[in-house]
Amino acid sequence: MKALVYLGPGKKALEDRQKPDIAAPTDAIVKITKTTICGTDLHILKGDVPTCQPGRILGHEGVGIIDKAGSAVAAFKPGDRVLISCISACGKCVYCRKLMYSHCTTGGWILGNSIDGTQAEYVRIPYADTSLYRVPDGADEEALVMLSDILPTGFECGVLNGKVQPGSTVAIVGAGPIGLAALLTAQFYSPAEIIMIDLDDNRLEVAKRFGATAAVNSADGKAVEKIMKATGERGVDTAIEAVGIPATFELCQRLVAPGGTIANIGVHGTKVDLHLENLWDRNITITTRLVDTVSTPMLLNVVGSKRIDPKLLITHHFKLDHILDAYETFGHAATTRALKVIIET
Ligand SMILES: NC(=O)c1ccc[n+]([C@@H]2O[C@H](COP(=O)([O-])OP(=O)(O)OC[C@H]3O[C@@H](n4cnc5c(N)ncnc54)[C@H](O)[C@@H]3O)[C@@H](O)[C@H]2O)c1
Ligand SMILES: [Zn+2]
Ligand SMILES: [Zn+2]
């Protein structure tokens, strides 16, 4: 089968690989129909993710059809259409029992990281019963690809942890797919203001179409000033960090109102300063989270009812044969205006 293989920092190739087979009775083999590329795949290619070793097939998102089910798989049979969660969960360990699937002692984020992933014709999914979801009849499969990772991530790490409330004020730093997913799902709670901050005017335009009440380009260094003015010098109740660099986490610390919450989503590769000298008396909360994908069943219902349309995030389509072009397009979002790319097998 064809598969996109990580070959070490800066190196990847579309290779011929052996089709995976069942390794444990709880496994399923899924024939991929649609997959995508995540910002995290680009982090891996930069060499930022040491758990992902050369030779690994990348990808942790997608939908497909069950090709083979292990003898202990009860919920799925060959031919069933499934959504793949980016998080594999045994359902039984101490963390799974706390619904912290991301920290499953034998699962978590392993797909396209420590085991082969979804950017291939077939993938082996461990703990199939608790790591796959049935695709509802009539569902739009491309929209569902956005539910493998980015929608639960924006919602759980940003909106739920950030305690977005009716009438509250929210700032989202970073208008990439994850920040935009937080923007779409924050609207479940009817906040009064959602201010989107980025350096890219095109992405800010998209954010306004997706429901942002204001968009601030922070390139001029005046974002704090502008947002303080817009909030009566209070700051925002929720500041969501969706970039993953020190400058943006520090920006959140300057934007948060007394009593507010900073909800970090970004993957940070370097240390960041915490300004307790400014924050110690401000009654704030800081949260971090690796997406657990516990909200996936709820999000499937919301997407099914057309309350939100995650397809808005899809900008490009490629065949698996042209996945290297898909990486080029996705990797140069500022010029290609790419958000999410769909790769069809
Ligand atoms: N916590 C989790 O479970 C989890 C899951 C998935 C992804 N992530 C992380 O979330 C982050 C966002 O993911 P994405 O796919 O949307 O990434 P992305 O790179 O597509 O988007 C980041 C956005 O931030 C903007 N940006 C960069 N520097 C900025 C600055 N100084 N000020 C304002 N904006 C700036 C960019 O223009 C871009 O639009 C990444 O760090 C990713 O690894 C976390
Ligand atoms: Zn991802
Ligand atoms: Zn577990």
Helix content: 25-40%
Largest sheet: 7 strands, mixed
The overall number of domains is 2
**What is the first-to-last residue Cα distance?**
10 Å
Assign the CATH class of the largest domain. Alpha Beta
Outline, from the CA principal axes?
globular
- The number of helices is 13
Radius of gyration: 20 Å
Architecture of the largest domain in CATH? Alpha-Beta Complex
The CATH topology assignment of the largest domain is Quinone Oxidoreductase, Chain A, domain 1
In total, the number of strands is: 15
Query: How confident overall, as mean pLDDT?
Result: 97
Q: Outline the low-pLDDT stretches.
A: none
Structural class: alpha/beta
Name every ligand kind in the structure.
nicotinamide-adenine-dinucleotide, zinc ion
Write the element-wise H/E pattern from the N-terminal end onward.
EEEHEEHEHEHHEHEHEHEHEHEHEHHE
Strand content: 15-25%
Classified in CATH, the superfamily of the largest domain is Medium-chain alcohol dehydrogenases, catalytic domain
